[in-house]
Amino acid sequence: METLETRELRYFVAVAEELHFGRAAERVGVAQPPLSRAIQQLERRLGVTLLERDRRGVSLTAAGEVLLHEGRAALDAATAAVRRTRRAAGGADGRGGPGGPDGSRERLVLAVKAGAFHELLQRLLDAYAAEPGAAEIEVLPSGTCEQEAMLRDGRADVALMHKPFNSLAGFDSEELTTEGQIAILPAGHPLAARETLTLADIAGIPGLPLARWPRNGVFPPGPGPEVDDQTQLAQLIALGRTAAVFPETARAWLWAEHAAVPLTDAPPVVTHIAWPAHSRSLALAALVRTATRLAPPAAA
């Protein structure tokens, strides 16, 4: 049976993402010649060409694209196995886990989008803490759409995810709530006086471009400012430099200098509690049961 070593996958993923052997070698901490040889040996062993090399640079073949996708998933799974194993045994951080050296209770890491869905999160934490034998919950705030990566690489055991912004592919999940979206504008802007708006209304507001959030570390093209945290966004909106689209629950963190106007044609945001499909944690199962019990009847 053909197998791949973690080292081989790490080398290949670095080259496939950088599309430059020199940068990839620096990234993984080896010299360029042995890195090139390792990739060539991998291609020979698999019997496929993974990379096209010419004077213009390096590009992925169709087979290389597949191995990049599968390799990332495999590396994330290996990293997740290490992190969750350490967490279960007490971990290098010394905070303990089930049967940990300090005798503390099990710990679950819950990834949430920073600043979002505060009321739902607080209700969930309070209700779960009241359960007999409840695990310790560490809340891990994340940037936009980072919950997926945190679940895949083991930084988190469970997450609150929000469609259509997050992908639930590869996870088990339960739907919790559904809500509309709002446009967040400077309070003094003319559109702030409207009762409702459409996506077309805010798509091209002169002098007020929509803020751009990173996705997998990359900002989409556009004229709006690049933002990666809520405080930065809030200040830019208050200064009249940008606008944003958020779920209705974002009203909880708005400043006096902000205005929120419902969007009539924006897709609804559905909040899910999600976890790795292979999880066998009884504490996680209890947390999910608590979350679904709190969900409105229509969603549950």
UniProtKB/TrEMBL annotation:
Pfam families: HTH_1, LysR_substrate. InterPro entries: LysR_HTH_N (IPR000847), LysR_subst-bd (IPR005119), WH-like_DNA-bd_sf (IPR036388), WH_DNA-bd_sf (IPR036390). Residues 4-61 form the HTH lysR-type domain. Residues 86-105 are annotated as: Disordered. This is LysR family transcriptional regulator. Belongs to the LysR transcriptional regulatory family. PROSITE patterns: HTH_LYSR. SUPFAM superfamilies: Periplasmic binding protein-like II, Winged helix' DNA-binding domain. One of its GO terms (cellular component) is protein-DNA complex. Keywords: DNA-binding, Transcription, Transcription regulation. One of its GO terms (molecular function) is DNA-binding transcription factor activity.
